[in-house]
Amino acid sequence: MDNFQFDQAEGLRRMLGEPRQRIYTFLSTLPHRNKNHLLFNLAASLSRSGSSVLLMDATCSREGVGGYQPQEHPSATLAQVARNEYEVDDAFYRVPQGFDVVCLAHHPREIESTGSFANWLDLSFESAVVEADVVMIDGLLDKDNEFPLMAMETSALILQVEDTEKSIKDAYMLIKRLAGRFGRMPFGVLVSGSGESRSQAIFRNMAQTAAHYLGIQLYSMGYVPKDDHMARAASLGRSVVDAFPMALSSFAFRRIAGSFSDIGPSQSNVYEMAGA
User: Fold this and answer.
1) Beta carbons within 8 Å of 119's beta carbon, 6+ residues apart
2) Please, are residues 53 and 45 in contact by the beta-carbon 8 Å criterion?
3) Which residue numbers in the chain have pLDDT < 70?
4) Are 140 and 63 in contact (CB under 8 A)?
5) In what order do the strands lie in the sheet with 218-224?
6) In Å, how far are 29, 50, 79, 120, 224 from 114, measured between CA atoms?
7) Stated pTM of the model
8) Beta carbons within 10 angstroms of residue 74's beta carbon
9) What are the tens digits of pLDDT across the range 63-74?
10) What is the pLDDT of residues 182-197, one digit of tens each?
């Protein structure tokens, strides 16, 4: 680990290669309010950088990012679209920060277990994301370690972890579940609630443990420092980059958004972790 590199862009390149559309599934061990702050602000930062962004809530719960900004008239869900109750356009709502939000379902019982429904749900998702450059999915593994959408199975997986003992412990358990489900595939890690040196230490320890015990490679997606400006911006119905552009978290989100847009076809200088 002596040649550890805190390289967001290279980690993204290695996970995705050269996709025509970038789809990221975010799995979190943060309290849902903190998780939603991060996802919303990252989507807003990506939108400001020129990407067409779709943020999808696939948690099928009230704790997902779909409820981050309450709507006066709730949109349809993709599950309702899959049942032919609504058109796909009815599932979108545009937020003032310049990106679209879609909810998969409001409750797990809306996701039928039949194969035909799963196919229709996948087709509804494909129709919903067709015009997006970047698709961010707020996701959860179910009790059987399954995702509700095929696209989530093949997307880049990014773990959100914060600088608390519980979050870090839960992240290790989540990595074990992912390893059992997907085998030796790489996962990105986005650390929040710490400065650069502490975030690097958290990532380094997680990466060493995952490589040694599971043969899993983790890649750093960067960090977002603890910053009350995010909550203040949320109370104003705005992103932190828009409301407080000089805040520390604003610099962090711009840096992370820049690394997402810096994905290229290069697969050179692939970093192999010791023990992987």
Assistant:
1) none
2) no
3) 1-21, 69-73, 261-276
4) no
5) 93-94, 100-103, 53-57, 134-138, 22-28, 156-162, 187-192, 218-224
6) 30, 39, 13, 10, 40
7) 0.86
8) 12
9) 899 877 666 667
10) 887 888 999 999 999 9
